[in-house]
Amino acid sequence: MREIRDLNPGAAVRVAAPATSANLGPGFDAMGLALELRDEVELAVVDGPDTARVEGEGAEALPTDGDHLILRLAHAHLTRRGFRAPGLALRAVNRIPHARGLGSSAAAVVTAVLGAEGLLPVAERLAPEELLDATARREGHPDNVAPALVGGATVSWAREGGRGWATAPLALHPDVTPVVAIPDTTLSTRTARSVLPASVAHAVAAEQAGRAALLTLALTARPDLLLPATRDRLHQDARAEAMPSSAALVAGLRAAGHAAVVSGAGPTVLVLAPGEEAARRAVDAVGGLTGGDGTAWRVLTPGVAAEGARVDSLHHG
Question: With contact defined as beta carbons under 8 Å apart, do 136 and 166 qualify?
Fold first, then answer.
């Protein structure tokens, strides 16, 4: 039986993880983009019960004790790594909206795992390439955690033989400018995935593969191709009934020439604009297409987070 080592009270770490938009249209469960909108977390080993202090998005609804997701994930990760904390104190400033398709759960996973790793002795910490498996294992797929870890745009895939995950950064063209339209409604990832078909026609799969390949070209070298490159036939149509306002906004924006997609599982809508002027036009277009059904939309141009999650050791205990 493996020995469990105790962490000393006083060790503390700070982690800041970016929001992410997964899928980007046809890159289902494989592609993602980091956005410069960050949750900041401080995690400390304490000689006492778990506590959580949260500010910002979702603060009024989140647990203030050991039931907080980040605390549960951090303890579970420490156990897997052969360590134990008598208690953990969490302080969080949340800027990523919850249940909107902007990677809030992935940011929680990343901050929990990187925070737990930051509490360990330096010689015991996982190598950067091992962190993808440690985080994707909890999410079930790497499309959000990969860009949250490394920043920018990423494409990820399953290693042969079920040996975990791999990811590669894309050299994002500097003109690619994200715009996000965030509704005041929420949608759980579980609900969004439950409406997906169990199988698709060969022709649909073939078209989807071509669009995903084109998306890689558009993101890295030809942003003028973003509109056709973001056409999806695998998941967005199936999910339209679960988020009718978002589906209508995507359709209206695309009809007006904007590369709009559902961000992750939704209901946020992402536009990948080929430059700042195109981004301004997209913002104006959102304003002109929304408001008819009573849904309130918040429109942001957060910029691409070129850097992934940041970790700072505050005290080694």
Answer: no
